[in-house]
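Let us work through a complete example step by step.
Step 1: write down the sequence.
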Amino acid sequence: MNQNSQTKTDEMRKTAEACVHRHLYHAMPPQGWTNDPNGFVFFNGRFHLFYQHYPFAPQSGLMHWGHWQSDDLVRWEHLPIALTPDKPYDAGGCFSGSSVVHEGRLHVFYTGNGADGTQTQCLAVSGDGLHFLKYKNNPVINGPPDTVIPNQFRDPCVFRRGKRFYMVVGAEGKDHQGQAAVYVSNDLLDWTYLNAISAGDDSLGHMWECPNLFFIGEDAVLLLSPQGIAGRPPFSSSHDSGYFVGRFDADTGTYAHGEFRKLDMGFDFYAPQAAADGTGRAILTAWMSTWETPAPTGACQWAGSMILPREIAVQDDRLLFRPARELERYMKPVFAAETVSCGDLPPLKATAGRLQIFVENKDFVVELFRSADGREYTALSYSADAHTLALDLSRSGEAARGIKSVALAQPPEVLQLDIYFDRSSVEVFVNEGGYVMTARVFPHQGSDGIRLSGKAAFRRIRLWEFGE
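Step 2: predict the structure and record it as tokens.
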């Protein structure tokens, strides 16, 4: 980065740091634009999380790989940019990809987007997790199979099974059906095409972005962000994310799987990736946004952030999520009550923390980021008759939006909500992570109230604030 560029980003960073919407416990860029997480990995005792980054403006631009590292998934340290688009094969951007550790070195695979839009798969290697050298014979995959559109071939996910490595690349077939191309390698350098994973029709969109295949025990989980899936309930956005649980055949590259299920029932969630820590625990991250999400933080010279890292479990071919346990040590208790009605609660305030509720199966409303005059708030409401939970952003502040809801599979005797909020985000974990609802919100300064109302009796309420 030259001196003029450095001066510009330094000025942008100062503006961003003063923004009232900056998170306290989520990964976000120091300045500029952020979208998909990339290369999420546990390496040399630390988590490394890369991300699509345009450092010079709070809008999407020529993509670099930004870089954070963390000891605990809560405090993220900004590191120098890992990949810069400085070669002919990535002159149009260093697009999304993944990481794998081999022989003590970190290998990152990414899509090189050529100046003409041609997409190839490329490699860079690091011994220390900080400095990366692009492979001299890039690209390692110079183009897609004949059945795939050349400029719709991106986001490589690389993993090891046994003694071999596999790469799954998102693609759009020439039949305009989404697919994931599967490759195999013995050395991470020479790759052979094996097979394609697909739905067999256009029911899952025309392009599969950001495929991420990982394993929990014998279950092979495939995360996808299909384009063109809007209007097929429960998928309501043209940029949405879901998953399969199945079995991967390492000999043939085939994947047998069950139903495609939605990952997050809220507004803002895209391009998920999973990483395993030193104990084998599977951790999920994702861009806490979509391409339709408003970004009023652009006025403060930054845009985009990541979800709270989530631990993943499989139960009956469904994924369950809970916030990474490391966060618990940062939460300071400020209020607790049992067997209480709404009218008996004192005034509650917080802008970054955790609210946990155990409540009987009756109607109620939780309002977060509530203004003193009651005109602004983010509402989470429950209808007992329909056993439906609704997240309402219509009065949430700047760039207010609509309502997203989820119908619970069956009426619960006691509904458990674990709500994490962080200045400009809300993440709701329902019934021990059976459902999650995520949203970016942009309340005005001073909107810090929490209000509960309705017919329900609360068996337990606990409020924590985030702190050191």
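Step 3: interpret the result. The longest strand covers residues 148-161.
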